[in-house]
Design brief:
The complex is a heterodimer of chains A (about 240) and B (about 280). By secondary structure, chain A is α/β, with parallel strands linked by helices. Helix content of chain A is about 15%, strand content about 30%. In chain A, strands 4-3-6-1-2-5 form a six-stranded antiparallel beta sheet, with helices on one face. Chain B is an alpha/beta fold and about 280 residues long. The chains are: A alpha/beta (about 240), B alpha/beta (about 280). The structure holds flavin-adenine dinucleotide (FAD), flavin mononucleotide (FMN) and FE2/S2 (inorganic) cluster (FES). The site of flavin mononucleotide has 25 residues of chain B, from loops.
């Protein structure tokens, strides 16, 4: 659990398009930005349950999230304007271990979200490779100046050289491909989450051979720990591609 | 009026600060053998509610007693253990192993447990013989006459009722496939509240037993409505997912809701509902 057991209310300080995504900026208030790869539960206006989002950037006094509008909750968040307020809980879960020698950041589609904050915390401009479904999605690469970018039909795994400590986030097929290439990679997984703090048992995936709560064990896991399929609903039209 | 959590909606060991806001902590249902639970996806949001098919994932009786219960005791709040099983002996054996807790809640609305009135009563009777601890029977409102089930479990020795469990439902994803791997799941949240208020009303009238009311409670006003229908205590379930601070918030709001309704204690609201005269004065 984060330091406070209750979500706190945060004012929207800005909302800007980044390709097809929206960068949503919130007043930070008393929240700790946490470790890269940790996530926050954001109230989705008009919905019963909050939605999980990785922290994308931590500008002074703000927390910024990159949101892909794929359904009612994310669309409601993308529709927020400056001055609106939402409830926020976090930071939650376990993020990336930063004690690596040769980091390589790998992102697919909206999986770019946690990488800007990760790059900042690692320091020294670590190499980044990104994969996107279209040129429009690839506009999000502007969040990581200097990144190498692949656009379909080129897949991001083709840009991964040997000898790196891979830290990845992206759709399931990409993560499985990265795990096959780099058995020591740290991978950020997704599952539907109702609570984000271990209360509902809704987010279980097969970790170390048993169904465990991804919100507590992860979302970032060493590649070898997730031996089963998440079996999460990757839309068929994007399965096999590098972004959803 | 005590504020509890609804069984299965809080892991006190993962979130001790949330559990400490409660007047008692109710465990997830414990079955005789460990259960890994249903395959994911297990949850889906619906209009004013959610579906879950967790599948009673729990460590099983032996590990619960040896590892979980001692750690739960250290947290502070009084404990209620939710007991599940597949026959009366399953339930009774778990009950006979429990001591030094505040109450036992019998989850009589488990999958694979026949919900006919006599079967629920048989389970309660077997548990009554096995323990002297207070026994709360948790019923489903899916039965055509929940008051009849309530009467039967009262006659079998239940000390109280927990009302209600989820109602079975189905949600479809964009491509018209079931959103949950298991196909169907239990509906919880605000969509359930009118059904729960009805069950509390008729079961209270039928038995006079103390009732823990639950189903879609999100605010102090909701809790007061359960009191008005005859609940002595309330439990918070789905609301905890969006707001782990709900127990403290609902308690504060309850005081204000009582003042708005012109009652001193939530219990006094039960009298208001019965009198058509005052009923009209209760703010909507
Ligand atoms: C730890 C974590 C961090 C996340 N970080 C971000 C982030 O930084 N930016 C971002 O845009 N999204 C992120 N997500 C995903 C985001 O939470 C979901 O997209 C969102 O909950 C969907 O809600 P919705 O109401 O818009 O759509 P829903 O109606 O819930 O879903 C619409 C469609 O998308 C599918 N879907 C829903 N959730 C997911 C998911 N998690 N993965 C794959 N498919 C899904 C559904 O099955 C459905 O087909 C993260 C998820 C997790 C678990
Ligand atoms: C994720 C989840 C898990 C649940 N697990 C249990 C359980 O193990 N045993 C039980 O008796 N009820 C269980 N329930 C039902 C709740 O205890 C409660 O009766 C129901 O959710 C209605 O209350 P609510 O609308 O406030 O959630 C569960 C509910 C949810 C949402
Ligand atoms: S999201 Fe509720 S237990 Fe993980």
């Amino acid at each position: 659990m984060p330091s406070s057991a209750s979500p706190s209310t945060h004012r929207v300080t800005g909302s800007e398009p980044v390709g097809p995504y929206t960068l949503l900026r919130l007043e930070r208030g008393g929240l700790d930005p946490g470790n890269p790869g940790q996530f926050f539960m954001l109230e989705a206006p008009g919905r019963l349950l909050p939605r999980p989002f990785s922290l994308c950037l931590a500008p002074p006094g703000e927390l910024a999230f990159l949101v892909d509008p794929i359904g009612p909750g994310t669309e409601a968040l993308c529709g927020l304007g400056t001055g609106d307020e939402i409830a926020v809980l976090g930071p939650l879960g376990c993020g990336y271990r930063l004690d690596v020698d040769r980091p390589l950041l790998v992102g697919g589609g909206i999986g770019i979200a946690p990488l800007p904050y990760l790059a900042e915390k690692l320091g020294g401009s670590p190499p980044v490779v990104l994969g996107f479904r279209t040129e429009e999605h690839a506009e999000a690469a502007a969040l990581l100046p200097g990144a190498e970018v692949a656009v379909d039909p080129v897949v991001v795994t083709e840009l991964i050289g040997p000898g790196f400590d891979v830290m990845a986030c992206g759709p399931e097929p990409m993560l499985h491909a990265v795990a096959a290439l780099c058995p020591t990679a740290q991978l950020a997984w997704e599952a539907p989450m109702a609570c984000g703090y271990g209360a509902c048992y809704g987010c279980v995936v097969e970790i170390d051979g048993a169904l465990k709560r991804l919100c507590l064990e992860g979302p970032v896991l060493d590649a070898h720990r997730l031996n089963g399929h998440v079996r999460y609903l990757v839309p068929a039209e994007s399965a096999g591609a590098v972004s959803r | 009026m005590r504020i509890l959590n609804a069984s299965g909606c809080l892991d006190a060991l993962a979130a001790p600060d949330v559990a400490r806001q409660l007047d008692a902590f109710v465990t997830k249902t414990v079955t005789p053998l460990p259960r890994e639970g249903s395959a994911p996806p297990r949850i889906a949001e619906t209009a004013h509610g959610m579906l879950n098919a967790i599948g009673l994932a729990n460590p099983g009786r032996e590990r619960f007693l040896a590892e979980h219960l001692p750690r739960l005791r250290e947290l502070g709040p009084p404990l209620w253990v939710s007991v599940g099983g597949f026959c009366a002996d399953d339930y009774a054996e778990t009950c006979s192993n429990l001591e030094d807790i505040e109450a036992i809640e019998l989850n009589l609305s488990c999958p694979n447990v026949d919900e006919a009135a006599d079967s629920a009563a048989e389970i309660v009777a077997a548990c009554r013989r096995a323990t002297g601890l207070p026994l709360y029977a948790k019923l489903s409102a899916a039965h055509p006459d929940v008051a009849e089930v309530a009467r039967a479990v009262a006659a079998a020795g239940a000390d109280g009722l927990s009302l209600i469990n989820t109602l079975r439902g189905v949600a479809l994803d964009r491509r018209l496939r079931p959103a949950l791997a298991r196909g169907s799941g239990g509906l919880s949240g605000p969509a359930l509240k009118p059904v729960a208020l009805h069950a509390v009303t008729v079961c209270g009238e039928a038995t006079g037993l103390p009732i823990v009311g639950m189903g879609g409670i999100e605010s102090g006003r909701d809790a007061l409505e359960f009191a008005a229908c005859g609940a002595s205590d309330v439990a918070l379930g789905t609301v905890l997912f969006a707001d782990p601070g709900a127990p403290g918030r609902v308690r504060t709001e309850l005081t204000a809701a009582c003042a708005d309704a012109g009652v001193v204690n939530p219990e006094d609201a039960a009298g208001l509902r019965k009198s058509p005269e005052t009923q009209r004065k209760v703010p909507a």
